[in-house]
Amino acid sequence: MRIAIASDHAAFALKATLAAWLAAEGHDVLDLGPDSDARVDYPDFGFKLAEAVASGAAERGVALCGSGIGISIAVNRHLAMRCALVSEPLSAALAREHNDANVVALGARLTGEDMAKACVTAFLTTDFAGGRHQSRVEKLGAPSFAPVTSGNPA
């Protein structure tokens, strides 16, 4: 599988570790940077990652920053992206199974190397279940949608 990976400066070391590990596992890794731990802006690298996955240059993506929050927001600004911030493997698997997530985000300051590898493994090895989840995922990619409410909106 071709995996795009990108980070900010805070997650540079974890990105390098995961990129090498993914390559050793037999994946084709598209490392979108940065190339050092010099200060950079996570939105720039989140955008590059989103473009790579949306264009088909990569099948899935791994996004990293200090907390994982900023880069996940940046990736999700692209309508074709479903980026899930996770901290353990069950969430990574459910993001794929129920939400057809195409990018997983991790916080390098919050997630150790072994846990990050376990999350990425779960993300890459879980298939989308489709079925009742399909129409929900389709709504996520709509240019604008109004959630349907039922009952008391409070």
Automatic annotation (TrEMBL):
Keywords: Isomerase. GO terms for molecular function: ribose-5-phosphate isomerase activity. InterPro entries: RpiB, RpiB_LacA_LacB, RpiB_LacA_LacB_sf. It is an enzyme of class 5 (isomerase). The keyword Isomerase applies. It comes from the Bacteria. Its EC number is 5.3.1.6. The keyword Isomerase applies. Belongs to the LacAB/RpiB family. This is Ribose 5-phosphate isomerase B. It comes from Sphingomonas echinoides.
